[in-house]
Amino acid sequence: MILDQIKLIHELFLSKDGVWAETAYDEGKWTPKEVLGHIIDTERIMTFRALCFARGEQSELPGFDQDPYVLNAKFGSVSLVDLLEDFKVQRMAMLSLLKTIPEDSLDTRGKASGNPISPRALFWIIPGHFMHHFTILQTKY
């Protein structure tokens, strides 16, 4: 499932014309390229959190406001090829990390955004978050 998502996102974007990737479905909504960038940023943040908690981090990690991240990233000026490659590389890096985390470290608890969470939960959230946005890209755009 996790590796299949690389293929799914590539196929979706490459099946559309270039205008599609640059066009929001409604005012105030992100473009498909911005959605993809948001998926990548969120995956990086969740992977970082999982690493921290698996390694025993006791400090609470801050939340993040997705809207300024998307705004400041200027994903519209990043080529689609680069965004798709970035997603693939990030996903492969996350999987590489997952292979190195001891099984008993997956259930250690940390706190992020004011909520307790484990690396195991974060690694499940990542593909779920992808599917949430992938479904929106398929149905609303």
Account of the protein in words:
The chain is mainly alpha-helical. Helices cover 63% and strands 4% of the residues. The protein is built from 6 helices and 2 strands. It has helices spanning 4-14, 18-21, 32-54, 66-73, 80-100, 119-140, and strands at residues 110-112, 115-117. It has a two-stranded antiparallel ribbon. It is globular, with a radius of gyration of 16 Å. The model has no long low-confidence stretch (mean pLDDT 97).
List keywords for this structure.
63% helix; mainly alpha; globular; 141 residues; two-stranded antiparallel ribbon
Can you tell me the overall shape?
A: globular
User: Structural class, please?
Assistant: mainly alpha
Tally of helical runs: 6
Strand percentage lies at: under 5%
Spans of at least 5 consecutive residues whose pLDDT stays below 50 are none
Characterize the biggest β-sheet: 2 strands, antiparallel
Spatial strand order of the main sheet: 1-2
Q: N-to-C terminal Cα separation, in Å?
A: 23 Å
What is the helical fraction, as a range of percent?
55-70%
User: How many beta-strand elements?
Assistant: 2
The topology string of helices and strands comes to HHHHHEEH
Radius of gyration: 16 Å
Indicate the mean pLDDT: 97
Short structural description:
The protein is mainly alpha-helical and 141 residues long. The chain contains six helices and two strands, in the order αααααββα.
List the helices and strands and how they pair.
Layout: H1 4-14, H2 18-21, H3 32-54, H4 66-73, H5 80-100, E1 110-112, E2 115-117, H6 119-140
